[in-house]
Amino acid sequence: MKTATKWLPKWLPNKGNKTMAKADLTTDTQIKKAIKDTIKTAKTANHPIAGYKGLELRIRPHKDSQDATADFRHRYTHPITGKRPYMTLGQYPALSLADARQYHSDNMQLLAKCIDPIEHRADAKQKEITDRQNTLQHFINEWRDIQDSKNLSTGTINKNKELLKPIESQLGHMRVTDITPSIVIKFINGIQKKHTYKGLRVRTLLKSILQIAKAHMVIEYNPASELQGTLKNHKVKHRPALSNDVTAFAKLLNDIDQLDDTRQLYNKSILQLLSLTFVRIGDACAMQWADIDLNAKQWHLEPQKSKGRGDMVDSIVIPLAPQAMAILERMQPLTGEQKHVFHNSRRKKAPYHHMQEVNKVLNSELMNDGKGYKHIHSPHGFRASAKTMLMERLGYDELITELALGHAMLNKYGKAYNRMTAIEDRTRMMTKWANYLDDIKAGKFDNVIHADFKSKKEKQA
């Protein structure tokens, strides 16, 4: 007659159950010994932690390895459903015995308030994720992604990096919902103590970043907006230009023409082109053969600084006067096989002449009887000189000179509205301008020409 097998609960030790319940643990020494013993038996074991009901250490040996994983777990009764879930607290020894006891106590306090610890932890984790996504750094990263898609110039990218540094270091960790106008004002004022203009540019950049958060409806208003009267104004300091003294400007042109063709060919040619085309120096140095139509005598230019700016056109056709064409014809045998007109193989990322070299020559003792033109005239100054003299000396109006400079024509609301190019009028104007420069270099200062833009109908009326 067979003896009946007595039924035992699964949690009690028996030979058929791989999970072994062991004696209560009270010290780290006992934990380390329990881990070694469990590895020898190669069976998972649960060890209660003395004095903390429901808190245990589960030890699971690794197969084919003299090692094991030890997890602190808390089994409790759900305050509403009555179920008995396990909550893993962390691995030993990364989570110490003292920390496990503290977690148990925290859970018991939550349970006393009818709060489930697992649900509470999930909610806290979700809040942490949401808070992280709502930090300014999150929107800085999004703003940076937008800028990366715009194909910005290297100079603009470097300037943005410089302006982002204080924003990231001082405000990046903050939630955008915690950033107030007073915080922005204090932040910008701190920068303006040393750099007034930089502070204003940082504020503009911060406003753009926060505008993304507003677009995502994370904030209702942009705290970097409407700060008039709270920040220091920057007095615009125009770059030096010889725009009113025609005699001094003529001397400058002659100084450029007398530069050595052997040592200063690039600098000489670039400065001559600046005087004839009055483009920005960065655009002149980066001039590409592919953008020049030698037959039409035109330069199809996409100004480097126009990207993302509403006050400038994205592209412009610059008519090339015969004097400008002569410079290109001089350069063609030297760099015609290269991408850039002023090719420089020593610069890998930007293989063309560096604009600082042009500045150095203009300010050097080679110019202006050994005194140079520092604080007198800059490469950018050719734009101011051309606009002033075209209007005051040659009689051209505001519209055509602004078009020649690549400025977008704005209405009273600041939006571009006039898309005319006036290419025929500008072609004639550029030739007259080049001839005017030749005349003043030769000492002819009385050749004032007044352009007449009246239509034939107006003349006949």
UniProtKB/TrEMBL annotation:
Q: Which PROSITE patterns match?
A: TYR_RECOMBINASE (PS51898)
Is DNA-binding among this UniProt entry's keywords?
A: yes
Keywords, A to Z, come to: DNA integration, DNA recombination, DNA-binding
Coiled coil (residue ranges):
none
Q: Which superkingdom heads the taxonomic lineage of this protein's source?
A: Bacteria
Sample GO molecular function, one term? DNA binding
The biological processes this protein is annotated with in GO are: DNA integration; DNA recombination
Enumerate the spans annotated as Tyr recombinase domain.
237-430
Q: Which InterPro entries match?
A: DNA_brk_join_enz, Integrase-like_cat_sf, Integrase_catalytic, Integrase_DNA-bd_sf, Integrase_DNA_bind_dom, Integrase_recombinase_N, Phage_int_M, Phage_Integrase
Family of the protein in this entry: Belongs to the 'phage' integrase family.
Name the chain's protein.
Answer: Tyr recombinase domain-containing protein
Q: Which organism is it from?
A: Psychrobacter piscatorii
Q: Which lineage is the organism of this entry classified under, starting from the top rank?
A: Bacteria, Pseudomonadati, Pseudomonadota, Gammaproteobacteria, Moraxellales
